Amino acid sequence: MINFKRQANAIKNCNKTNKTNKNAVIAEIKVHSPKYGDLLKQRNELDILKIYEEAGVVGISYITDKQYFNGDFDVFKEICKNTELPVLRKDFITKKAEIEKTAEAEASTVLLIPRILGEETAEFVDYANSCGLDTLVEVHNEQEIEIAKNTKTSMIGINNRDICKLELDDGTVSLTEKLANLIPKDRILVSESGISNLNDLNIALMYTDAVLVGTSFMKADFEIQKEFVKSFVGENYD
Ligand SMILES: O=P(O)(O)OC[C@@H](O)[C@@H](O)c1c[nH]c2ccccc12
User: Fold this and answer.
1) What positions does the domain Indole-3-glycerol phosphate synthase occupy (predicted)?
2) CATH architecture of 6-232
3) Torsion-angle region of residue 132: left (phi > 0), alpha (psi -120 to 50) or beta?
């Protein structure tokens, strides 16, 4: 059973206007990065899922792109099957069939990128919604925000990195600071990429409802990974 808008609701239930003291952290199970290479390091994706769950994150992200991020759609399906948390599929989607495939995997959300889809973004958002999926529309500049605003997406992500540079740029939360006020308040706003410490996290959360973190969680040593993720979720979470 697909649960419409699970990801958006998970974030809404946890943002600053709510009573919980937990920060809304979406944690990415990122197996490879174009910059750092292998990030999985003999670990198992489902073990990392468990650690993220135990640390109290609100959602999981997984990149299915094979070419640059070494993702695997079968692993994505396993992740969806093994968690009650909302799961976001990250990929460079250009075909509606891929949206159907995402819904069939029982994901909750699909990433759509105006840099790739241009004005077709709105149509892809509608299509994803009709398949029972929530959408995260990812922007990196003002022009892309205009496209995102003309869609019915409930979530907009500011990608602090430029996807065209394939992560050879570091990504800085100052982009979130710069662009956040251009995004209407009725959308759930997520700051994505390059968030590597609590200082970055706190800056991002001054402007957004949630953060999405991959590399720094994956680079944390296995023994301390849960504590590290927990420190992002917040001390008051148990
Ligand atoms: O590893 P980071 O810097 O914490 O970033 C995670 C995530 O935002 C990044 O992986 C990402 C953002 N948009 C994407 C689009 C496709 C693939 C990957 C991505």
Assistant:
1) 18-221
2) Alpha-Beta Barrel (3.20)
3) left
Residue with the smallest CA separation from ligand 1 atom 8 is 193
| Residues 67-103 pLDDT 10s | 999 999 999 999 999 999 999 999 999 999 999 999 9
- The dihedrals phi and psi of 139, each to the nearest 5 degrees, come to -125, 160
Number of neighbours of residue 119 by Cβ within 10 angstroms = 10
Q: What are phi and psi of 33, to 5 degrees?
A: -125, 145
Backbone phi, then psi, for 100, in 5-degree steps?
A: -60, -45
Is 43 in contact with 222 (CB distance < 8 Å)?
Answer: yes
Predicted complex ipTM: 0.98
Residue 9: closest CA among 86, 100, 111: 86
Q: What is the Cα–Cα distance from 217 to 94, expressed in whole angstroms?
A: 28
Show me where the domains of the chain are located. 6-232
For ligand 1, mutation pick of 33, 52, 72, 90 (most atoms within 8 Å of CB): 90
Which residues participate in catalysis according to the annotation? 28, 30, 90, 138, 159, 192-193
Query: Tokens 């750092």 label which residue?
Result: 36
